Known about the structure:
- The protein has about 110 residues and is mostly helical.
- It has one domain.
- It has 4 helices and no strands.
- It has helices spanning about 1-30, 35-50, 60-80, 85-105.
- The longest helix is centred in the N-terminal third of the chain and has 28 residues, at about 1-30.
- The radius of gyration is 15 Å and the shape is flat.
- The two termini are about 20 Å apart.
- The mean pLDDT is about 95.
Amino acid sequence: MLILKTTALFTVTALAEIVGCYLPWLWLKKNGSPWLLLPAALSLSLFVWLLTLHPTASGRVYAAYGGVYVATALVWLRFIDEVELNITDILGAIIILIGAAIIILGGFGHSR
């Protein structure tokens, strides 16, 4: 249950970070409105707050989150950017998620 709850929270966190970075990209690269910066800032603030919800050392949280972020970014690549994933994308995500799961299962029960 811990791994599912943590992965779900990290996925929402990753989406907040990706949206917070994507909106300024739209403004700068695609001539989007400068008003995109307001929801971007809110999204990045949400991202930071979500990372604080874990009861373990920050470095461990960041390490495990990184794996989930990579997988979420590849889902974004596929469905938002509409780019087909290749076998190395998929294998890389699997390997990274295994690493994140090991960190979560091995260290999230300890506060330090």
